Amino acid sequence: MSERIDLLQGTLDMLVLQTLQWGPQHGYGITQAIRSQSSEALQVETGSLYPALHRLERQGWVKAEWDITDTNQRAKFYRLTPAGKKQLIRERDRWEQLVAAIGSVLNPVKS
Fold first, then answer.
1. Rounded to whole angstroms, how far apart are CA atoms 8 and 68?
2. Which domain holds residue 63?
């Protein structure tokens, strides 16, 4: 896909939480997972990802620990906390409501 899709504000947090639901991951791994799962349509820039991760960590939704990557490099790995799992459910519910509302506007029921 040649055109990049800009994320709606607040969507990045949900995508990061969703990605971490699959298991602990370092920042680069998170961006790669989002990119590959979206068929290359969504690309998260470093300047957006790390502030989001720090914000999620301050909220208590993710926890970070230093570890060694598959390529033997030291990196900070993030994992979802129980509070983060609950937040992901809330975020997904809100997302589904937003999608339904937009769908209603784009495809109104004709009476």
1. 33
2. 11-104
Specify the residue for token string 């998260």.
44
Q: Give the count of domains, the chain.
A: 1
Is residue 20 situated within a structural domain?
yes
What is the Cα–Cα distance from 90 to 81, expressed in whole angstroms? 14
Its pTM stands at: 0.86
Cβ proximity of 27 and 48 under 8 Å: no
pLDDT in tens, the chain (111 residues): 445 555 666 799 999 999 999 999 999 999 999 999 999 999 899 899 999 999 999 999 999 999 998 899 999 999 999 999 999 999 999 999 999 999 999 999 876
The token duo for 27 is 């920042």
Task: Evaluate whether residue 16 is within a structural domain.
Answer: yes
Which among 110, 35, 27, 31 has a CA at the least distance from the CA of 76?
27
Q: What is the CATH number for 30?
A: 1.10.10.10
